[in-house]
């Protein structure tokens, strides 16, 4: 069986730049944004190296000469960045919010229907989801941005189009629900530990998200707002991914250059292409990296050792106490 490294390099050979967007299972960011995860990476992207674990840095006999050369190029690039930044591949990490940091705790259509029943909503969850997708994909004529300030006009349109209910009380209850910790949970339960290790190593971290002004209170409700050195919200910076301006604004907030940054997100168009257009590196969540520990390992081998030692010490203490 081919090693993990071989599989990554093979994916580069088989799917360079011709892959479509990650599938949009649920819709956009904001009230709901748990998008599907893409499955391939662009040719010559250092992001492929992100999923290579240290013990799997060799290629076995099943890999082709082309794959071997590509893998060598990726490793050379990674080593170059580590030398440039004193053991780190990047000086700053940008993280997408919905679909990467957090996901809805329950399906959107289920919540729309459950809350809507007392307001007379009797549409099936399947129909709500289909209507939602159609409404979300329509051009938003009132503004070039979907999320302006609190995003209420946009979301009122979405909720009404999805359910057929325009009751203002229904909308307010639904709108406020998605600003609470009940509506969301972290994609990776180890995120806090990893982010702290990165910050201790001098890596700056920012959220870069297409969202309305509810994002900040939502991060506070989830008790993770203090994990980040900056938050770039599209509704505040007046630019939505894939517009490179939102990434450049995040660079300004952290005081770094785009080439110093890697962005991690789950949407190929918004996150990967947008970040690269701004001059940042980019890794696709769910494909290039599966967890924030993998992100940490990719950014710093020394942080990997720190995490493994911390886990070993925690286990040892647990065994002693037991």
Describe it.
The chain has helices spanning 4-14, 65-84, 108-116, 125-137, 152-163, 168-177, 191-200, 215-221, 234-237, 244-254, 268-277, 292-299, 301-321, and strands at 92-95, 102-104, 184-186, 204-209, 230-233, 261-265, 281-284. It has 2 domains: 4-101 and 185-313, Rossmann fold (3-Layer(aba) Sandwich); 106-182, Orthogonal Bundle (DNA polymerase, domain 1). The chain has 322 residues and is α/β, with parallel strands linked by helices. The longest helix has 21 residues, at 301-321. α3 (108-116) crosses α4 (125-137), α4 (125-137) crosses α5 and α12 packs across α13. 45% of the residues lie in helices and 9% in strands. InterPro entries: HAD-like_sf (IPR036412), HAD-SF_hydro_IA (IPR006439), HAD-SF_hydro_IA_REG-2-like (IPR011949), HAD-SF_hydro_IA_REG-2-like_cap (IPR044924), HAD_sf (IPR023214). Pfam families: Hydrolase. It comes from Oldenlandia corymbosa var. corymbosa. This is OLC1v1036522C1.
Q: Strands, helices and their partners?
A:
Blueprint: H1 4-14, H2 65-84, E1 92-95, E2 102-104, H3 108-116, H4 125-137, H5 152-163, H6 168-177, E3 184-186, H7 191-200, E4 204-209, H8 215-221, E5 230-233, H9 234-237, H10 244-254, E6 261-265, H11 268-277, E7 281-284, H12 292-299, H13 301-321
Parallel strand pairs: 1-4, 1-6, 4-5, 6-7
Antiparallel strand pairs: 2-3
Helix pairs in contact: 1-2, 3-4, 4-5, 7-12, 12-13
Which CATH class of the largest domain? Alpha Beta
Structural class computed from helices and strand pairing: alpha/beta
Identify the overall geometry.
Answer: globular
Summarize the helix and strand pattern as letters. Answer: HHEEHHHHEHEHEHHEHEHH
CATH topology of the largest domain: Rossmann fold
Count the E strands: 7
User: Could you give the order of strands across the largest sheet?
Assistant: 5-4-1-6-7
Rounded mean pLDDT is 77
In CATH terms, what is the architecture of the largest domain?
3-Layer(aba) Sandwich
Report the span from N to C terminus. Answer: 40 Å
Low-confidence stretches: 1-59, 80-86
Helix content: 40-55%
- Rg over CA atoms, rounded to whole Å, is 21 Å
Largest sheet: 5 strands, parallel
Q: Which percent band covers the strand fraction?
A: 5-15%
């Amino acid at each position: 069986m081919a090693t993990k490294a071989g599989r990554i390099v093979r994916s580069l050979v088989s799917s360079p730049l011709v892959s479509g967007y990650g599938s949009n299972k649920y819709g956009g960011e904001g009230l709901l944004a748990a998008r599907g995860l893409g499955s391939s990476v662009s040719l010559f992207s250092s992001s492929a190296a992100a999923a290579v674990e240290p013990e799997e840095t060799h290629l076995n006999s099943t890999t082709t000469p082309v794959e071997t050369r590509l893998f060598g190029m990726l490793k050379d690039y990674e080593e170059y960045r580590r030398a440039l930044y004193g053991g780190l591949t990047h000086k700053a990490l940008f993280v997408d919010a919905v679909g990467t940091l957090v996901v809805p705790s329950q399906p959107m259509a289920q919540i729309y229907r459950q809350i809507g029943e007392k307001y007379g909503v009797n549409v099936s969850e399947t129909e709500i989801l289909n209507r939602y997708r159609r409404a979300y994909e329509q051009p938003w004529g009132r503004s070039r941005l979907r999320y302006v300030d609190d995003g209420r006009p946009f979301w009122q349109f979405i909720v009404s189009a999805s359910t057929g209910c325009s009751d203002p009380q229904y909308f307010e209850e639904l709108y406020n629900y998605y600003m609470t910790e009940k509506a969301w949970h972290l994609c990776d339960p180890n995120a806090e530990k990893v982010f702290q290790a990165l910050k201790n190593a001098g890596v700056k971290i920012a959220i870069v998200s297409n969202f309305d002004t509810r994002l900040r209170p939502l991060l506070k409700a989830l008790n993770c707002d203090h994990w980040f050195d900056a938050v770039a919200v599209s509704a505040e910076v007046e630019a939505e991914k894939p517009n490179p301006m939102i990434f450049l604004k995040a660079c300004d907030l952290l005081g770094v250059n785009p080439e110093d940054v890697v962005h991690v997100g789950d949407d190929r168009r918004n996150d990967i292409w947008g970040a690269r257009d701004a001059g940042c590196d980019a890794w696709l969540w769910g494909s290039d990296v599966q967890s924030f520990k993998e992100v940490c390992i990719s950014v710093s081998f020394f942080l990997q050792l720190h995490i493994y030692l911390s886990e070993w010490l925690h286990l040892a203490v647990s065994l002693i106490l037991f």
